[in-house]
Write a sequence for this structure.
C-alpha cells in the first residue's frame, strides 16, 4: 500500500529561523513529488520534483528529491510570519495517476 | 488566471439529507478530483474524473457519488449525509498527463448535524 509520512507534524519557530520539513514515501511506480502550501483555504502549488538531486528554488523556499532514500525535503530560510501554514507533500504514482498526500506539517512562525 | 470555484464555503446539513457540492473550473482541464481533508489524516481522494461522463473511485468512495456532465463541472453527492462526513471538501483540477500539477478550489466546510 502506498504510504507518505511527513515530519515533524507540527513546528513552532521564530521569525528569521531556518526550517527543514521532511517527506518520506513508499509509492508504487513513483513518477514525481509535489509540495503544496495551505493557509486558510486552498492548497497552492510550490514545487514539482521529478529528478533526484536537483534543487528547485523559489525565493526563500527550496526543495530537493532523493529517490534512493525515497524522500524529499523542503527548506525555508529566514522564515516570516507569512510562512505559517500547513505544508503538504504528495508523491504521484504513474501506476494509478493519483497524488498521495501526507498528513502535512503545520508550521507556525512567531514574530 | 487559473480558477477553481466551489459552490459554498460553509454548509450545514442534517443527517439523512442529500447534499450536492459543486465544483467549476475555467481552465479547460480534463482531470478533476474530489478530496476530503481531516485533521491528522491529510487529503484523501474520494473520486476523480479524467473526462466528461467518466468517473473513477478514489481511496474512500463509500457514501459518495459524483457526476460529470460537462467538462468544467464536477459534482460530489452525499446521498444520505451522516455525521462522519463532516469535513473540509476540496475540489481540484489538472490538465492531462500524469505529471500535471493540481489546482485547488477554496474548499467547502461541511457540517452534518
Amino acid at each position: 500500500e502506498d504510504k507518505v509520512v511527513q515530519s515533524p507534524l507540527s513546528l513552532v519557530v521564530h521569525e528569521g529561523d531556518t526550517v527543514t520539513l521532511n517527506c518520506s514515501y513508499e509509492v508504487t511506480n513513483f513518477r514525481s513529488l509535489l509540495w503544496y502550501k495551505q493557509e486558510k483555504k486552498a492548497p497552492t502549488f510550490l514545487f514539482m520534483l521529478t529528478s533526484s538531486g536537483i534543487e528547485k528554488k523559489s525565493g526563500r523556499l527550496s526543495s530537493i528529491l532523493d529517490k534512493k532514500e525515497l524522500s524529499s525535503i523542503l527548506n525555508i530560510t529566514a522564515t516570516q510570519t507569512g510562512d505559517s501554514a500547513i505544508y503538504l507533500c504528495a508523491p504521484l504514482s504513474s501506476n494509478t495517476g493519483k497524488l498521495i498526500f501526507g498528513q502535512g506539517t503545520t508550521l507556525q512562525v512567531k514574530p | 488566471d487559473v480558477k477553481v470555484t466551489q459552490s459554498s464555503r460553509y454548509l450545514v446539513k442534517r443527517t439523512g439529507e442529500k447534499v450536492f457540492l459543486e465544483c467549476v473550473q475555467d481552465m479547460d482541464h480534463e482531470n478533476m478530483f474530489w478530496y476530503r481533508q481531516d485533521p491528522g489524516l491529510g487529503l484523501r481522494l474520494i473520486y476523480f474524473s479524467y473526462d466528461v461522463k467518466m468517473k473513477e473511485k478514489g481511496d474512500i468512495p463509500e457514501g459518495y457519488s459524483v457526476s460529470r456532465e460537462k467538462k468544467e463541472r464536477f459534482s460530489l453527492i452525499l446521498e444520505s449525509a451522516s455525521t462522519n462526513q463532516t469535513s473540509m471538501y476540496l475540489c481540484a483540477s489538472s490538465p492531462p498527463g500524469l505529471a500535471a500539477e493540481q489546482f485547488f478550489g477554496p474548499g467547502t466546510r461541511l457540517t452534518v448535524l
Summary: The radius of gyration of chain B is 13 Å. Chain B has one domain: 4-112. Chain B has a mean pLDDT of 93. The interface with chain A takes residues 4, 35, 40-45, 48, 50, 58, 90, 98-99, 101-107 of chain B (CB under 8 Å).
